TrEMBL record:
Residues 1-21, 262-321 are annotated as: Disordered. Keywords: Metal-binding, Nucleus, Repeat, Zinc, Zinc-finger. Residues 266-286 have a biased composition (Acidic residues). PANTHER family: ZINC FINGER PROTEIN 330. It comes from Pelusios castaneus. The keyword Zinc-finger applies. This is Zinc finger protein 330.
Length: 321
């Protein structure tokens, strides 16, 4: 019979479990909360941007640099990790920095751990927006990650992309390899797969996780847990509405035309006839105006008013008898 756990043993096991979770969560920091992607306001131009060594807009150096790895602005010298020793002195500003990251373009402090590990694990090493294909050096905003497909997004496209991310590149929810209903969806490939076709020889499924996508290896999600929608086109054969007999698109147009139910063609003919009638009325009006002008000219052609101011003569220019 196993021994009964004491209170001290239970507390020790709970503490070890919490420490394990804390260590695991340190490596999985949210991209928006990472120090190299923190929000910064320039001291000179007062424009908000991503944490950078130099301002993206005015290229000025900031008074209080933020470390891209640990996020500190002042080195307290509590440990011997500093590459540059400053015993008994708190270092801030440029005295605290030791390098600039090539990927996130932010300062890295002179701590030995930050200098040796940040460049290898920088979360913005291959950060390129999936929509506009801009990197960190191409815009001044922060970098985000899509909640569905986990691709990088810039600050300008994050909301627009996430609003249209759950749309399949197909017209139905059927599996791309067979005709059965796709129970698993890959939000990177925008495709559905059934249970049989999610099994891949290249990408192995980890225990306790969803099966990976057989195309790209990204973790799939169940379609019923998502708000997935299919692709819809507003042109071509999908423009016609479904009729009573089930015909739609081009087929419905020709069927309605053959049966004499094509109301759109009749409407167009009526509109064409009305336009022709209006054009005829306008032409008649113009011709009538020209005729009236000609008649008025004929009436006053034989009228003689003598010498007037309008004819170029004045009363003092009249010859005396």
């Amino acid at each position: 019979m196993p021994k009964k756990k004491t209170g001290a043993r239970k507390k020790a096991e709970n503490r070890r479990e919490r420490e394990k979770q804390i260590r695991a969560s340190r490596g999985n920091i949210d991209l928006a909360k990472h120090p190299c992607n923190a929000s910064m306001e320039c001291d000179k131009c007062q424009r908000r941007q991503k944490n950078r060594a130099f301002c993206y807009f005015c290229n000025s150096v900031q008074k209080l640099p933020i470390c891209a790895h640990c996020g500190k602005t002042k080195c307290m010298m509590k440990s011997s990790d500093c590459v540059i020793k400053h015993a008994g002195v708190y270092s801030t500003g440029l005295a605290m920095v030791g390098a600039i990251c090539d990927f996130c373009e932010a300062w890295v402090c002179h701590g030995r751990k930050c200098l040796s590990t940040h460049a290898c694990i920088c979360p913005l090493a291959d950060a390129e927006c999936i929509e506009c294909e801009r990197g960190v050096s191409d815009h001044g905003g922060r970098i985000f990650s899509c909640s569905f497909c986990h691709n990088f997004l810039c600050e300008d496209d994050q909301f627009e992309h996430q609003a249209s991310c759950q749309v399949l590149e197909a017209e139905t929810f059927k599996c791309v390899s067979c005709n059965r209903l796709g129970q698993h969806s890959c939000l990177r490939c925008k495709a559905c797969f059934c249970d049989d076709h999610t099994r891949s020889k290249v990408f192995k499924q980890e225990k306790g996780k969803e099966p990976p996508c057989p195309k790209c290896g990204h973790e799939t999600q169940e379609t019923k847990d998502l708000s997935m929608s299919t692709r819809s086109l507003k042109f071509g054969r999908q423009t016609g509405g479904e009729e009573a007999d089930g015909a739609s698109g081009y087929d419905a147009y020709w069927k309605n035309l053959a049966s004499g139910k094509c109301g759109d063609a009749d409407d167009h003919d009526d509109e064409y006839e009305e336009d022709e009638a209006e054009d005829d009325d306008e032409e008649d009006t113009e011709e009538g105006g020209k005729d009236s002008e000609t008649e008025t000219t004929d009436l006053f052609s034989n009228l003689n008013l003598g010498r007037t101011y309008a004819s170029g003569y004045a009363h003092y220019e009249e010859p005396e008898d």
